[in-house]
Sequence to fold (111 residues):
Amino acid sequence: RIDLAASDPVVEYQNIAYTLHFYTIYHHQWLRDRASSALQSGIPIFVTEWGSIGYSLVDPETNKWMDWCFANKVIHCNWAVNDKEEGRSIVIPGASTTGSWDDNELTGAGK
Fold:
């Protein structure tokens, strides 16, 4: 739990970051509140995994999480950026390997 790590941070070493994972179907405002509190305590956070499983093309929780990451300057990595037939992947099979995807190369999770 990011809030517990923030209450007892590692001080013996420098260049430490703390990770946060979230899935928008399960993790809502309560986790953003914990993470915000952790940031306010001064620890750096890196979202090393997140996903938008279980939602349709319109996912208000994903938008809230992306707004939170942007507002707090938190770098994040989506769980599935791959071009295989998988509902959680953000791109379709055969999508460009160089990024800058068009809407027609994105899955529902990618939009």
